[in-house]
Description:
Elements: E1 5-6, E2 29-40, E3 43-55, E4 60-64, H1 71-78, E5 86-91, E6 94-95, H2 101-111, E7 112-115, H3 127-131, H4 133-137, H5 145-157, H6 173-185, E8 191-195, H7 203-220, E9 223-228, H8 231-234, E10 239-244, E11 247-253, H9 263-271
Parallel strand pairs: 4-9, 4-10, 7-8, 8-9
Antiparallel strand pairs: 1-2, 2-3, 2-5, 5-6, 10-11
Helix pairs in contact: 5-6, 6-7
Amino acid sequence: MTIDSPIAPDSSTAPAPAAPSAPADAPILEARALTKQYRMPGEIVDAVRGVSLAVLPGEFVALMGPSGSGKSTLLQLLGGLDRPTAGDVFLEGEAISRLSDDQATRLRRERTGFVFQSFNLVPLLNVVENVGLPFTIAGLDPRHGELAGRVRDAIELVDLTGKERHRPDQLSAGEQQRVAVARAIVTRPALLFADEPTGNLDFTTGIDILEALWRTCVDRGQTIVLVTHDAKAAAYADRVFVVGDGRIRDEIVLGRREDHAAGPLIARLAQLGL
């Protein structure tokens, strides 16, 4: 059964309101009564059902659930890639769900970064060029000055120093995903969204990616929202929202810790019957 079209409210063409200054402990990301429905032949499907949540600056949060639970749809709404049928998403106090398409695109480009299961690298570009691509697209030259420093810094953070001139076909799958992480953080986004970033990788390589994401959070204060079906990946998070049937079924607080063993999270999930 195929999805025909999402039900979404009309886009606003009003100028984007200025984001209010927020106190340091205010949420950087907030969802309020978020709902997403899709029309399918003969029925309406509720992919996300009245979800409310908040993410604080510098937090590592995981949305965990099985395939079809609504977690990826929820991430798309939180990241401004899709519009809710009802409810609002606020990024740094600004209601991104009410912006026009152009305004939402600009906000995503300037304030968020995305890492997906597929690496989406440009085959003809080397590591430096792929990492600097967000600047190039914006009409800036990432080869000189501060921007070149940012590119070097991002490459160093994901442990790819020495492979700057390699093209994607000269890198392993894990190295390609690390390039994708570096590209997502090079603009220093307020929020980094990662949708199953280890899904195409073996266990050891997946751990390397999770460690790279962890370092961006701990060393740089990067706020991360990770979507995963894997408890071992979710165990890197400070908090885990368990998603099922389009709802938040539970919130599990793990806290900031150096040990990312999944045992405590798996035990808690077992207590919940999940």
